[in-house]
Here is the input.
Amino acid sequence: MLSSLASRRKFDQLSEQEVLALAISSEEDDARIYRSYAQRLQADYPATAAIFTGMAAEEDDHRRQLIDLHQSRFGEVIPLIRREHVAGFYARRPVWLAAELPLETIRGEARAMEQQAAAFYSRAAGRTQDAATRRLLGDLAAAEAGHDKRAEALEDASLGSDEKAAEDATARRQFILTWVQPGLAGLMDGSVSTLAPIFATAFATQDTWTTFLVGLAASVGAGISMGFTEAAHDDGVLSGRGSPWKRGISSGVMTALGGLGHALPYLIPDFWTATAIAIAVVFVELWAIVWIQHRYMETPFLRATLQVVLGGALVFAAGALIGGG
Here is the structure.
């Protein structure tokens, strides 16, 4: 590790030929990244894929201009130097290797790539004394800095308002199917299904520590069960609901949190204080479920309120009656 760091060169130590070689390899890498994004997005977001294909073509053009300049100044042999060979130089996060990426994440990475490239060319242009080299590097800095304008031009050709709205709707639907829906199901299960055992134990024993242990066991056990069930019952290939592990994590974590919310107050030694706080937490949990249903699942607010709050109240009453009896 130390020998690898010691072998890297500082940017200020690079010759003008090495700076050009670094720019050439960087443009080649960026073009390949954009084409990877285009290939990944082609099936679900063809218009945005066309934008990235156009951006890759622009990077190819930049690379050809840099190679022509290198040939005229230094000859045919281009030194092999890449970003990882330069200490302190920006690196591309290998997000394109991830199995699934949200559309906005990809767009954000592309914007960051262009900003980093613009900063590099501006710095490189300030280090050269050759007029032709300085002019080309300055032009490339301006081109990279003008990414937003180029993207708008490409969007005008490839991504109209209707297409962009359709792609954004598809991305939102995927987010809901992969994260919101399993998480909401988990939160409902954890919050509602644990009400009866926790409050039955509380009123039957009036022992806060025992009630906490029962709530902890019920919450963690339900979270593990819900998480594995969600991950195992649908691989997402046919349903289009996304990665089973993402859905399993979302469902499992939210299930556990839903139960722990009203179990944790029983760490307070005083029974009635703990119970009052637990009831208040339940109220907040149920209204959070109503809000999520209304916000993301487009359930009418009144119907969501009746389903969740009334159902939760009935489960709570059942637990209190059983424990009190």
In short: The chain has two domains: 2-159, 165-324. Residues 1-5 have pLDDT under 50 and may be disordered.
